[in-house]
Amino acid sequence: DNSTPAGTPSSPAEIIKLYNESANKIKTNASKVTRNFEDLQHNSEYTEMPGALQSIGTGLISQFLKKNETPVDYTGADIQANFPVKGESYVSKITEADIASATCNDDGTNYNITLKFNECTDPEGTGCAAAFNVIKPDEVYSAAKVVKNFSCRYYDAVIECKIDKASGNITWIKFTLPMVLSVTAQVVVTLDAKVGMTFVDDYSITY
Length: 207
Hints:
Blueprint: H1 12-29, E1 32-42, H2 51-64, E2 67-68, E3 72-74, H3 77-82, E4 99-106, E5 110-117, E6 120-121, H4 137-143, E7 147-154, E8 158-164, E9 170-186, E10 190-206
Antiparallel strand pairs: 1-2, 1-3, 1-10, 4-5, 5-8, 6-7, 7-9, 8-9, 9-10
C-alpha cells in the first residue's frame, strides 16, 4: 500500500522542514549517537594520476579507504564535534535549493525520508556543506604542504533517515557522500591528480 496517510509531509518544503527540525534536535536532545559503521570507498573510475604516481597512488588510496565496522559512541560535546555538521551546533540547514529530490514514506511508526542533493563544488554552508561533513580546503593544505590547489566536487549525495512519528526524533540516519577530489601538488614538478571516493556513515541515535 503506497497511499500516503493524511498529515504525512509530501512537498519538498514540508519534508525539508520536518528533516531540519528533527535533525537539529540530535545535537540538543540526543544522549548518545552511535556510528554503526563508516565505509570509505575508492571510486577508481574517477581517479586520474600521472603515470609516475599511478602505481603508488592507487595502492595507497585503497589502503586508506576501508570499511570500519567497529561502532563508535559519541556523547556530550563529542556529538557536536563529530556528528555532521562537525563542530557546528546544527545538523542541517538545507533549503530547497540544495535538494534534487525529497521523499517521505509513512510506515505507520516512522517517517522514512530520503533527500538527494544537487551536485556542488567546494560548497560553504550550502549544498552538501549544509548537512554533511565535507572536506575543507584548509584541512588539506595544512595536512599536505605539497598541495597547491584543491577542489572537491560532490555528486549524488544522499541522506536517508527514520523519524519516529510519536516523538519527532531521528532514530537512524545514513549519509552517503560521493566526491571527486582534484589536487595540484608541487613536488619537484607540478602534478595534477583526481581521486574518486564515497564516504558512507551510518548512525543510530538514542535519546
